[in-house]
Amino acid sequence: MEGIGVLLTFPMSSYLEQQLDKRFNLFRLWNFPKRNDFLEENASSIRAVVGNANVGADRELIDSLPALEIVSSFSVGLDKVDLVYCKEKGIRVTNTPDVLTEDVADLAIGLMLATLRKICECDRGKKVGIIGLGRIGTAIAKRAEAFSCPISYYSRSEKPKSKYKYFPSVVELASNCQILVVACPLTEETRHIINREKQPTPLNFYLPYTTGPQLAVTGPPTSIMEAIGVLMTFPMSPYLEQQLDKRFNLLRLWNFPKRNDFIKENAGSIRAVVGNANVGADRELIDSLPALEIVSSFSVGLDKVDLVYCKEKGIRVTNTPDVLTEDVADLAIGLMLATLRQICECDRYVRGGLWKKGDFKLTTKFSGKKVGIIGLGRIGTAIAKRAEAFSCPISYYSRSEKPDSKYKYFPTVVELASN
């Protein structure tokens, strides 16, 4: 085997190079500046060419290797290989279909989430359009569906068995989606398939949620509403503060270093407290506000609110369940993908210009990984739904087993973590 010459056309995985080196006489084409001289000297021993999506085997290279028997492309696409000429010459051609399907689909979803959530800088239901509904396109669609994304696609012809909406042109597809995924093989037909001429309007890759007309607010007259004191315990969304400022006498607790003096002066007018996961309403605060009628937590959790004491005092308590369920689940999957795929490290690698020196190291995929969830509530269930789309076996721990759940239950966190 060591006498068989294998020509590697482009730097690839170090593991692949090591394995070829062990078994064959491996020639790395990029190490020979005088390519023609090198080929003349070694042509008779080279029986195989290993290429990829960057450099394959064109007619000129094939003609220079009279002993060539096989061309292997370490990629899905074969656009860098002269398939017609190989067929004429009786040279076998292989590639790697399906080897990277799950990985590319994982990474595509990871990059969408990283972009929309700005993971490297530290939305749910975005319309996803896919150009090319082949293996990879279908795998991406399957994952995006789990995020409640409406899927549509363009391909040379409509897929009769597909449940996704078909558009007969790229322009129509791009006009009806917010994220556009190019998942088609590179051919002369698909080259520059996305360009300014074919794209009449910019894609909404970063389109924020849009809002319709403001809802009419009914209730007491404005003058009465403005007299109602609302105590906000912690800085929150500027929009929320603006809206409360418009409707009530909003008091921001963090602006008053002498908290006790401030509360004594304003206790008679404060009828509502707005807290969050950082600062809510404990027994001491509740006792200091005799006119308090409601505590609203701008969060899902209520652990910062003394619920038992509020019930005793007849104070209503509200929170925001489901408002952020889908967003938190999106972000959880995004962070898993960003961690396993090292997306933030890749971002620094590219920005630092290190890509000029070589490819980034191999990372690991998310698909098929066993996912354990502590707490199978609204958010846990939404995460499980998304992880399922990546063919991940799901198990969970909670205070008690969920009788309607199809996922495997573990009675302790230690058992869950061990599995």
UniProtKB/TrEMBL annotation:
PROSITE patterns noted in UniProt: D_2_HYDROXYACID_DH_1
UniProt cross-references to Pfam families, sorted A to Z: 2-Hacid_dh, 2-Hacid_dh_C
Record-annotated D-isomer specific 2-hydroxyacid dehydrogenase catalytic domain positions: 235-362
InterPro entries: D-isomer_2-hydroxyacid_DH (IPR050223), D-isomer_2_OHA_DH_cat_dom (IPR006139), D-isomer_DH_CS1 (IPR029752), D-isomer_DH_NAD-bd (IPR006140), NAD(P)-bd_dom_sf (IPR036291)
Keywords: NAD, Oxidoreductase
Annotated D-isomer specific 2-hydroxyacid dehydrogenase NAD-binding domain residues: 124-197
SUPFAM superfamilies, per database record: Formate/glycerate dehydrogenase catalytic domain-like, NAD(P)-binding Rossmann-fold domains
Any one GO CC term of the record: cytosol
GO MF annotations in UniProt: glyoxylate reductase (NADPH) activity; hydroxypyruvate reductase [NAD(P)H] activity; NAD binding
PANTHER family membership: 2-HYDROXYACID DEHYDROGENASE YGL185C-RELATED, 2-HYDROXYACID DEHYDROGENASE-RELATED
Protein family membership: Belongs to the D-isomer specific 2-hydroxyacid dehydrogenase family.
Record's protein name: D-isomer specific 2-hydroxyacid dehydrogenase, catalytic domain-containing protein
The organism of origin for this protein: Cynara cardunculus var. scolymus
